[in-house]
Write a structure and sequence with these properties.
Order of helices and strands: HEEEHEEEE
Structural class: alpha+beta
Largest sheet: 5 strands, mixed
Distance between the termini: 66 Å
Strand order of the largest sheet: 2-1-7-4-5
Strand content: 25-35%
Number of strands: 7
Oligomer: single chain
Length: 87
């Protein structure tokens, strides 16, 4: 007979977690993704910068390629921008 923990793990295995990149909805079975994974799922060029939109007046947060983001139970919205060029 499965334990409560095994039942919970089995239920969450097929669960989809949603997030947005450039106003387009994406989903993942993983509850945590790296910045590079978010860009890959959304088809964002690897050299682009990924930013997490903060609610309210707070500044948006830049998400590095190796930075983990918890998307479980949240509706996070990201946007991608090309790298800054000097002029």
């Amino acid at each position: 007979m499965p334990t409560k923990r095994e039942n919970k793990k089995a239920k969450s295995k097929g669960r989809r977690h949603h997030f947005f990149v450039n106003s387009v909805r994406y989903e993942s079975e993983a509850p945590r993704l790296l910045g590079a994974q978010i860009k890959a799922v959304a088809g964002v060029h690897p050299y682009y910068q990924l930013l997490l939109e903060e609610r309210g007046d707070g500044p948006d947060e830049m998400i590095g390629d190796c930075q983990a983001v918890n998307i479980k139970g949240k509706f996070l919205s990201f946007y991608a921008v090309p790298p800054a060029t000097g002029g």
